[in-house]
Amino acid sequence: MTCSSGNCCSGATACRAVWPTTLPMARRAMRQLARFFESRKLLGTFAAHAFNGKAQIGSSVQQCTFYLTASALAFDPVGAGCPALSGTACSIYERRPLTCRSVPLHYSRAAAFAADDLDAFVATPGFACATHKDAPLVLQHGVVADPGIAESRAAALAQAQQDAPWKAALVKAMKHGDPRVPSLAQVEKAAARGALTVPMLGGWEIAAEAGLLEAGAIAALKRSQVIALDRLSAARGITLVAAQAIAEQRRALA
Ligand code: SF4
């Protein structure tokens, strides 16, 4: 194809941009692009819904794409820690969830950010990471080097993709004002706090209505949830706030 008029891209800013001319500059640009696309790819995998809006970035307001993500998380009463924790060790270590297996390079973060994430993790008080020269290699030249972590990241991402129909059913319910799930406006309002948590029961029912879960499975899930909540409420040192939250969830399942 040849350009005959020379006018077709005369107003395009991108066509006037100065492209990096030195090799280090080109490499830097490629790294930034890779980070950008990898982060978008990952957000796309996790997202239940993507929508456009405006956000304050520094001193200016910019047009952005926002991603709503939906995750199934175990109830974590304040101060109680993970119910599988026994003293300072994991009592279910051999069958711990994928989210734990991918620590410290959690699967919800693109590999492009792994070096920064690892530094931040190591610097966080309380994690006691082994950093001596014989410690297991986790990351090498920006690539996840630990096979267990790499496998669990890939398995978790595949699982996130499998969950896409359930996420779509949840967003549809949100858009139709279903009282079992928060509205998009409520999610947006809570976004500054990082997350909005709701009981799983509504999510299970919506999955069943969308043909993704057998109706009979809900009864079994409710039973196992009640057992887990009763175990939690009987745990030593449970705070009053946590006890109230457990009781509320227990009532919702009755
Ligand atoms: S590894 Fe995971 S399951 Fe085990 S105690 Fe820690 S948070 Fe809980």
Structural class: mainly alpha
The low-confidence parts are 1-20
SSE arrangement, N to C: HHEEEEHHEEHHHHHH
The counted number of beta strands is: 6
Strand neighbour order, sheet with most strands: 1-2
Distance between the termini: 69 Å
- What is the percentage of strand-forming residues? 5-15%
The dominant shape is: globular
Describe this protein's structure.
- With 254 residues, the protein is mainly alpha-helical.
- The protein has ten helices and six strands; from the N terminus they run ααββββααββαααααα.
- A two-stranded antiparallel sheet has the order 1-2. A two-stranded antiparallel ribbon has the order 3-4.
- A hairpin with a 2-residue loop joins strand 5 and strand 6.
- The chain is globular, with a radius of gyration of 23 Å.
- It starts with 12 loop residues before the first helix and ends with a helix.
- The N terminus is likely disordered.
- Bound molecules: iron/sulfur cluster.
- The site of iron/sulfur cluster has 7 residues, from loops.
- The site of iron/sulfur cluster (SF4) has 7 residues, from loops.
